[in-house]
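Thread: quick sanity check before group meeting

JM: Hey all, I'm pulling together slides for Thursday and realized we never actually wrote out the predicted structure for the chain we discussed last week. Dropping the sequence here so it's in one place. If anyone has concerns about the input, flag it before I start.
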Amino acid sequence: MRRALALAGRGRGRVEPNPMVGAVVVRGGRIIGEGYHRQFGGPHAEVHALAGAGASACGAALYVTLEPCDHHGKTPPCTEAIVAAGVHRVVAAMQDPDERVSGRGVRRLRRAGLDVEMGLCREEARALNAPYLKLKTRHVPYVTAKWAMTLDGRIASLAHEARWITSEAARRHGHRARSLSDAILVGIGTVLADDPLLTCRIPGGRHPTRIVLDSRGRLPLRSRLVRTARESPVLVVTTAAAPAQRLLALERAGCRVCIVPVRSGRCSLPDLLGLLGREQATHLLVEGGQQVLSSFFRAHLVDRVLVYLGPKILGDGLSPIAGLGCRTVAEAMLLEPVSLRRLGPDLVLEARRLGG
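JM (edit): ok, ran it. Output follows.
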């Protein structure tokens, strides 16, 4: 099952909004076929694994990271392929929360006389597909907050300069994080200060939808985001306070404009996440700046943090988060560390919300 989980992870960034799934066919204690879901709309993991096993799949066991589907979507039901191959036992890590699948796949296999076991490496499977599970159960995308900072916790100097806190190796890793996300979000303050492009600049990477929180419609028409809007999608999230003519000009330049309600004087983040969920966005990467990051944390909307730590000390400057109202250490927001590793001279820390 751990081999199947490792295979499943290869589909990250290519299969969304589908789940990442890996499958392994075992006979006589040996792996005779394996596969994973490679791209959205393509054959599922089970099909690849059974094809690799060929006729030897008859009487074998199939280990799969998610309950096999039993419905016609972009591909035929995996349960049909499993039964037709003569597999005698299926071990699935977890049940699929998709209402078209949940429980149906297991029942179909058991009715066909297969031995079905559920729950092996369940927590690992849930962690792997946390964004998919959130989309299917809560109908909003998984949110990762990302920033780079110095050892003393500064994301920019007093002069709002941030280039470069971390090394090229860390920046490449950050671009990979963009490639694995469906959408990337910044505030209008970041756009006005830095004129970012927000694309993925690694070979073969995909460009996420670029989102700007801009409650008053201040996004410059000559910004790099607007000038490339026809090449890679740009979503301007604004409010009714923005001038209509300005929004029309942004739309004519190729941007998509979405008006959301106002909460605490700003664009409503829950309404934005609801919109993205309805459009099947699985993973949202929030890159800042300070006000936007703080707003997501204050609203308890962050599922995971990705922090790049450069071996520098500024002494003064901007911190990534402000205004949470914690007066004591006991009131601090707690996160569960997932990994800490070195990238050149820097460190990258991944942590997730407790219970998330």
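AS: nice. The two ends are 23 Å apart (CA to CA). The longest strand covers residues 142-150.
JM: adding both to the slides.
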